[in-house]
Design a protein that fits this description.
heterodimer; A: mainly alpha; 3-stranded mixed β-sheet; 20 helices; B: mainly alpha; 70% helix; globular
Chain lengths: 434, 161
């Protein structure tokens, strides 16, 4: 029987053994440097928290309900422990980084702007050809353990990227979007945006109308259930769009180019449960770039691609799914909320076109001559080098959709951008001005 | 970027945490009936009462969204569980939620009486159902399956709107 003496004996033996096996894994041993240490400590915190739960076995006089609750607790522990095995290869990867070093430095700069200083970045290739991220992956279980105080204080962030993209540095502007998720969580940005949105009378009225409309589409559902469904989808879309705005704030047009090159081959205007239609994302990225003062630069360096992306952005989906029309209309009319939150979060670390345009132009000129673009008189900023890399690639491959695709192929230009970002970061950290 | 596979771990952790919390409530309610409630258990019972009050608010006003994604998930699960119990027991969901929240508050302050025994048992049934549902959910996330209706087969709550 579930929770009887034999069942609890099995479960205690199993979870104790699973915890011991993880503790004994060599990949969980202490680190030589600091990279990966917060993640390691986070996993150790999980094991310590679960040990505390295993030790709370009820005595034999406890009623069946308590024994069943303990049995479920240990089964949940086992499930989480199996999930925790995923962290071990990430820890191993911190000892042998695969991604381009210049790219890693760039990513750390993004993290500083989007999340803060106290961050432990682990950048690992993925078996799936996708970019994704996780941060504090086990905190819900750790923080929910009564009487347990975790030791990890730095935020561990794991970034996944397609192995094929290790040296496609221009695409690594996408890391800024992924780090946006950690920034949203760390600074509770989604809560801030949702609070503003749900306090807006016009939005609430439109939401109620959408619920009524959707109930007609889904007659078997209740208003409560429709509300939850719409709110969950909207929450997912808002987070993605917030991350796009944050990435645009930090990386400028380089994010637009990387986004278009990577995402448009996958989807166009199809709405997803988690992700908004790509066309809507392009619309809002372009709007935010204009808001930040990048329009003149885009028109000067990539007018063809910009015109094409504006056409993508202006595409309107057929009105077959009213709730998606509701989301689209509301997000477009409330996009200022997203812009404002991104600007507030990034603040002075925003990539400012008044300085970055000249630096990117210098980097592009050097790259076109196959010269390492570290700067002729003063070191260029890594983010301006990244933008200069895109300018040079578009100039080389053509200001068209095809040129954009060929720009990410990964060649000498990517190597030069990565090496220059690496050297200027080192220069800024250790150069004579320090 | 377009598939957040890494976030599966966070989803797993969140699903497990909600189940662990529900089962902690079961144990805390038992401690309360034994007059052996610890401080951390008292906090747990306070959080359980708050959740049921939020769920009652949602059952009464379905268009009023809860404050956070966690609240949304927890109240949805609690409402579904309650709907299952309510169907079995022929009770009015918002009234049952209010009654249960009161019983938990009494348990947290050590003021339960023998007359509350049956109600506390119903609260324990509710949180056992939440714990069972979350165990199915965690298993589904771990194996990347999205079971549309777990074997606990909860029914959507009917509301007053």
């Amino acid at each position: 029987m579930d929770g009887d003496a034999a069942d609890l004996e099995l479960l205690v033996a199993n979870t104790t053994q699973e915890v011991s096996l993880l503790r004994a894994d060599r990949r969980l041993e202490g680190m030589d440097g600091s990279r990966g240490e917060a993640l390691r400590q986070h996993v150790v915190d999980l094991l310590d928290a679960l040990d505390l739960r295993i030790a709370a076995a009820p005595d034999s006089s406890a009623p069946d309900a308590v024994r069943r609750a303990f049995a479920r607790t240990l089964r949940q522990c086992t499930i989480v422990l199996r999930g925790a095995h995923a962290a071990l290869p990430w820890l191993a990867a911190t000892r042998e980084p695969n991604v381009n070093l210049g790219s890693l430095y760039l990513t750390e700069e993004f993290a500083k702007a989007l999340v803060g200083d106290d961050v432990d970045l682990v950048v690992v290739p993925s078996a799936e050809a996708m970019y994704s991220t996780t941060s504090w992956p086990f905190s819900a279980v750790i923080d929910g353990t009564p009487g347990f105080t975790p030791s990890a204080t730095s935020r561990p962030i794991v970034l996944n990227y397609p192995l094929s993209d290790s040296n496609r540095v221009l695409l690594h502007a996408l890391f800024a979007h992924e780090l946006g998720h950690a920034g949203v969580a760390e600074h509770e940005l989604l809560d801030t945006v949702e609070t503003s949105l749900y306090a807006d009378g016009e939005f609430v009225e439109a939401f109620a109308e959408a619920v009524t409309e959707m109930q007609e589409e889904w007659p078997a559902s209740t208003a409560g259930r429709v509300t939850v469904t719409l709110r969950e989808i909207l929450g997912g879309w808002l987070e993605e769009l917030l991350c796009d705005h944050l990435a645009t704030q930090v990386v400028g047009p380089a994010f637009l180019f990387a986004f278009a090159a990577f995402v448009l081959p996958l989807s166009y205007g199809e709405p997803g449960v988690v992700h908004p239609p790509t066309s809507l994302r392009v619309r809002l990225i372009l709007d935010h770039l204009a808001h930040l003062g990048w329009t003149e630069h885009l028109d000067a360096t990539a007018p063809g691609i910009t015109q094409w992306l504006n056409e993508v952005a202006n595409w309107t989906p057929p009105e077959t799914q009213p709730h998606f029309a509701f989301f689209r209309n509301q997000l477009l009319s409330h996009s200022q909320l997203l812009s404002d939150n991104a600007a507030t979060r990034v603040g002075p670390l925003t990539l400012d076109p008044t300085t970055a345009v000249d630096e990117a132009g210098e980097a592009a000129e050097l790259l076109e001559a196959l010269i390492l673009p570290v700067g002729l008189s003063t070191p260029l900023s890594p983010r301006a080098i990244l933008l200069g890399g895109w300018q040079a690639a578009i100039s080389q491959h053509g200001d068209t959709a095809t040129g954009l695709v060929h720009s990410i192929a990964g060649d000498q230009l990517h190597d030069l951008v990565g090496k220059a970002a690496e050297l200027t970061t080192v220069w800024q950290a250790w150069g004579p001005s320090r | 970027m377009t598939v957040r596979d890494l976030q599966k771990l966070e989803e797993l952790s969140a699903a497990a945490a909600l189940g662990l919390w529900a089962d902690d409530i079961v144990v805390a309610l038992y401690s309360a009936t034994q007059g052996a409630l610890g401080e951390s258990e008292r906090h747990l019972l306070d959080s359980a009462a708050q959740l049921l009050e939020l769920a009652r608010e949602r059952a009464t006003h379905p268009l009023a969204p809860p404050r956070s994604a966690r609240d949304l998930a927890a109240t949805t699960t609690a409402l579904s569980a309650l709907a299952t119990l309510a169907e079995a027991q022929q009770t009015d969901p918002p009234a049952a939620l209010a009654e249960m929240a009161d019983a938990i508050r009494k348990a947290a302050t050590g003021s339960l009486t023998p007359a509350d025994t049956a109600l506390v048992d119903r609260v324990i049934d509710l949180f056992e159902l939440v714990g069972s549902h979350q165990l199915v959910t965690s298993n589904s996330v771990l194996s990347s399956r999205k079971d549309v209706e777990p074997w606990t087969e909860m029914q959507p709550i009917s509301n007053s709107s």
